[in-house]
Amino acid sequence: MTFAIDTNILVRSLHLNHPMQSVAAEAIEKLIARDDSVCVFPQNFYEFWVVATRPVEQNGLGMDSMKAQSELARLKDDLAFLPDVPAIYSEWEGLVINHAVIGRNAHDTRIIAAMKVHGVTHLLTFNGADFKRFQGITVVTPDEIVNQQSS
């Protein structure tokens, strides 16, 4: 199976003092260990950079640009990096219009557009409610992956 990773999972997996850190990191590790393809898109990295370099007092990770660059390089090595292609814009535009997406949810919609264009059907996220409106996407939480029984 191929899983896209929402930016909140990437951020929480690196936020060592956050209560969701261990479940986010463990879910990614478990998907990789069971040979699922785990992918990210440029959109994830744009969003990651914003949070990673934002001060801790403003709900960021407080990284300097060198540390953020190092983390991006590690993530690109560990995860499948699927590129932006022109078809993503058309897919995104159709989704935001058809689902009347407004405000910051347009960022999440861009991840869904990239998933649809690249044929990715599963999304690992803490914010499943943000994605319920989109058909053809299976939303999975880190807890579901971590607590999943081996068959």
- The residue-averaged pLDDT reads 94
The span between the termini is 15 Å
Task: Indicate the structural class.
Answer: alpha/beta
**Gross morphology:** globular
How are helices and strands ordered from N to C?
EHHEHHEHHEEH
Q: What oligomeric state do these chains adopt?
A: single chain
User: What is the spatial order of strands in the main beta sheet?
Assistant: 3-2-1-4-5
Strand content: 5-15%
Give the domain tally. Answer: 1
CATH class: Alpha Beta
Give a count of the beta strands, DSSP E runs of length 2 or more. 5
Count of separate DSSP helical elements: 7
What would the CATH topology be?
A: Rossmann fold
The radius of gyration over CA amounts to 15 Å
| Fraction of helical residues | 40-55%
Low-confidence stretches: none
CATH architecture: 3-Layer(aba) Sandwich
CATH superfamily: 5'-nuclease
Please summarize the sheet with the most strands: 5 strands, parallel
Verbal overview:
The protein has 151 residues and is of the alpha/beta class. It has a single domain, classed as Rossmann fold (3-Layer(aba) Sandwich). The chain has helices at residues 7-14, 21-33, 42-53, 65-78, 86-98, 105-118, 142-146; strands at 2-5, 37-40, 80-81, 122-124, 138-140. The chain has a five-stranded parallel beta sheet.
